[in-house]
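[Q] Does anyone have a clean structure-token version of this?
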Amino acid sequence: MSPNAFDWFISLFTLCLAGPWVFYDGYNLIRLRKADSADPIVRDKRFGYVIGILIGLIGVIGVTKHHLG
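[A] Here you go.
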């Protein structure tokens, strides 16, 4: 496998994981907005979903900057 092909393989693999991850955690965060904010488990889930969105965005933005910048 050439270095260019490997670069694209890793980039597509990252996008296939990070892209849906952003939408999945975003969807879960939206579903959780009606939950009781006083419950520590709900607050922990919200924190986890926000961190998941940030990690996914870092993956998508990183791959985009790698190939466009």
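[Q] Thanks! Anything notable?
[A] Residues 3-31 form the longest helix (29 residues).
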